[in-house]
Amino acid sequence: MEHVEKVIDEKKQGKALVTEHKKGNNKKLFIESYGCQMNMNDSEIVASILAEQGFNTTQTLEDADLVLVNTCSIREKAETTVRNRLQKYNHAKKHNPKMKVGVLGCMAERLKEKFLEEEKIVDLVVGPDAYRDLPNLIEEVDAGRDAVNVILSKEETYADVSPVRLNSNGVSAFVSITRGCDNMCTFCVVPFTRGRERSRDPKSIIEEIRSMQEKNFKEITLLGQNVDSYLWYGGGLKKDFKKASELAQATAVNFAQLLDMCATEFPKMRFRFSTSNPQDMTLDVIHVMAKHENICKYIHLPVQSGSNNMLKAMNRQHTREEYMELVDNIYKIVPEMALSQDMIAGFCGETEEDHLDTLDMMNYVKYSFGFMFAYSERPGTLAAKKMEDDVPLAIKKRRLQEIIDLQQEHSLYRAKEHVGKIQEVLIEGTSKKNENEWKGRNTQNTVVVFPKEHYKMGDFVNVKIEDCTSTTLKGIAVGYSENN
């Protein structure tokens, strides 16, 4: 089932990063990323740090002096893929003995001993907060020593590193605003692999967006494991806010204020954000979205389950009723808002009644899109340590299929709501199915395709929607929008 929310973009998995070549750099870096958009973003930060150390990127594995794979621990599939890639790198290493191989990111944090000592398949292991240490670590490796830094930091936000963005479409980009996560959901490994939550200085965020505007980017997605709990009070961990001085607390910037600042400062740019957490989402964020035309009317609002028993077992800090009340308020303040979900089918102890609660919740909200998975245990999580993965695979698969089928119905229902309307679309590229058509997204994040005519990439165009499938709107351009 296609989902437009850029959490895990299958097309970008394992694609070698390409960046502009810096004159005088004579070493070659091959870097691949798996997992979430945070990982893609981190690879851009790594490329930026290593460009200062004489590395240009290459797409040819065999030529590389340094091969890095940025990893993910969320899904088993990503881990299996990374292991297969490491075997391929080692094969290339036989032909190019000077090549060094390193593992970055979340899996590095979790499997450091295994990779270096037991399997001896990599030369360096670098966790998500240690990318600045890469130059020293590479020196260690060059001197013939194993290099590891997986220390999770309280401060690191890479606020002053300008990511090199050349894998993007040149129209939309991601800007990280927080790192880490404080929510200890029992199914999730992120707090253990990315550390506790800290936010980035709003000034550095605004500066990064300004530099994106100068490069003609038209749409920014503010990115974090949990953007709603963004809180800047001068630096440090979110959980230490209570210990800050009165002045620091009084002048702190929360997510609603940051969003307001961005939209006000850059009225011609579009803003999105991801990912939201229902327990941290406040209505002032929704009021800011209502106030600004240039904040897209779309929220990815993962619920994971519609059952209170499951929400409790998952350690989600909200109930089914609180979530539904939040949804009611969102639709009341912004009637045209599109919502999308994450759902886990077959979590530990899930009964048929719990599953029916999930389907009921979906019927209540009628999400525009969804990300749906059968539960699979991730080592290192609280669920893996303390709960029994007791729902048989066949039942998980059936429940997942029922969730997918229902989501497809709702996606079509939501897509049909757009038919007959004129909507602003930002052109992001050529349609996959027809090279004579552009594709872009409307404010609700639904993909729109229409004939190219004289329009070009990066234009804001008004499109009359004439037809739809459950994932795509089809229409015809009627002119440029005011934003252009």
From TrEMBL:
InterPro entries named among the record's database cross-references: Elp3/MiaA/NifB-like_rSAM, Methylthiotransferase, Methylthiotransferase_CS, Methylthiotransferase_N, Methylthiotransferase_N_sf, MiaB_methiolase, rSAM, rSAM_horseshoe
Domain Radical SAM core: residue ranges: 167-414
Domain MTTase N-terminal residues, every copy: 27-143
Record-listed [4Fe-4S] cluster 2 binding positions: C181, C185, C188
Entry note: cofactor: Binds 2 [4Fe-4S] clusters. One cluster is coordinated with 3 cysteines and an exchangeable S-adenosyl-L-methionine.
Keywords: 4Fe-4S, Cytoplasm, Iron, Iron-sulfur, Metal-binding, S-adenosyl-L-methionine, Transferase, tRNA processing
SUPFAM superfamilies recorded: Radical SAM enzymes
Required co-factors: [4Fe-4S] cluster
Recorded superkingdom: Bacteria
Function per UniProt: Catalyzes the methylthiolation of N6-(dimethylallyl)adenosine (i(6)A), leading to the formation of 2-methylthio-N6-(dimethylallyl)adenosine (ms(2)i(6)A) at position 37 in tRNAs that read codons beginning with uridine.
HAMAP family xrefs: tRNA_metthiotr_MiaB
Name the UniProt record assigns to this protein: tRNA-2-methylthio-N(6)-dimethylallyladenosine synthase
